[in-house]
Design a protein that fits this description.
Shape: globular
Radius of gyration: 18 Å
Low-confidence stretches: none
CATH topology: Purple Acid Phosphatase, chain A, domain 2
CATH architecture: 4-Layer Sandwich
Helix content: 10-25%
Number of helices: 6
Distance between the termini: 34 Å
CATH class: Alpha Beta
Number of domains: 1
Bound molecules: fe (ii) ion
Structural class: alpha/beta
Number of strands: 13
Order of helices and strands: EHEHEHEEHEHHEEEEEEE
CATH superfamily: Metallo-dependent phosphatases
Mean pLDDT: 95
Length: 283
């Protein structure tokens, strides 16, 4: 289909995020993973995606792919320490029947990711951003990871690349994926860990009218914020969810969730699907 073919598009895709796979030694007293097995939760999400009708054209993994650092927050986790978690992710993704595109989140480790996923990164710490097309629509994956920080940032070189990429695809309806949220969702302790240069990113996106949606992860809850024709969606996690009510950190084990997006011509529609963790094969 040509770049002008978006009006004939008819497909779906899924966004699932904050998979948080962890392999490593857990520090004494750490409660992480004691209430929910993140790999099992992801397996359940993948089984549900695989039986969707029609089948999604592709999946986007929204970052925090792995997080062994959560097992012991006093330890410095090296690329070697991170590798087993990415290998587990690779293994859990094998049954997924559609292609998968991955983003970096604040818990990720670029060097270990590039090594295990065998990307064509030019440098061990190279940021992982790129774009792709499907049926006349354009999709952009950004990298907001700042090593050692919970909040995110899109560095200048990436903003320049984004500006050029959007200019080259001006005729195509565009969806942008980024791990960190740009606009507050109303949960203060999460909102202070958003994208530090959200204004700069928003200015670039607004200078290209084909940009429709930004789809984010990070906040472990589904939200929808619309501002002057631009929409920010966040997707709940495949594992732990964060309270939408409490203004202090409060996490719940599950339900495993993912977002389904339908594209029909130039129209987009979406919903978040929450699974029943205690009934892992009952969809
Ligand atoms: Fe996360």
């Amino acid at each position: 289909m040509t770049a002008l073919g978006a009006e004939h598009a008819d497909f779906s895709f899924v966004h699932f995020t904050d998979t948080h796979l962890m392999v490593g030694e857990r520090a004494k007293g750490s409660r992480v993973m004691s209430q929910l097995d993140t790999a099992k939760a992801l397996e359940q999400v993948i089984r549900a995606i695989n039986i969707l009708e029609p089948q999604p054209a592709f999946a986007v993994l929204g970052g925090d792919l792995v997080s062994p650092d959560l097992l012991d927050q006093n330890k410095v986790w090296t690329a070697d320490d991170y590798e087993p978690s990415y290998r587990l992710l690779k293994q859990v993704l094998v049954p997924l029947t559609c292609p998968a595109y991955m983003l970096m989140g604040n818990h990720d480790h670029r060097d270990a990711f590039h090594r295990v996923m065998q990307t064509d990164a030019s440098l061990p710490e190279a940021a992982h951003y790129y774009s792709f097309d499907h049926q006349g629509h354009h999709f952009i994956a950004l990298d907001s990871l700042v090593p050692g920080e919970h909040s995110g940032c899109i560095e200048i070189a990436q903003l320049d690349w984004l500006q050029a990429d959007l200019a080259q695809h001006a005729e195509q309806p565009t969806v942008v994926f980024v791990h960190h949220h740009l606009w507050p969702i109303g949960v203060r302790w999460m909102d202070v860990q958003g994208l530090k240069n959200a204004d700069e990113l928003e200015a670039v996106l607004r200078s290209h009218s084909q940009v429709r949606w930004m789809i984010c992860g990070h906040v472990h809850q589904d939200q929808h914020v619309e501002r002057d024709g631009l929409t920010q969606l966040t997707t709940s996690a495949t594992c732990f969810q964060i309270s939408k009510v409490s203004q202090t950190p409060k996490l719940f084990p599950g339900p495993p969730s993912f977002r389904l997006v339908h594209v029909k011509g130039t129209s987009l529609s979406t919903r978040v699907i929450h699974l029943h963790y205690d009934k892992p094969d009952d969809f």
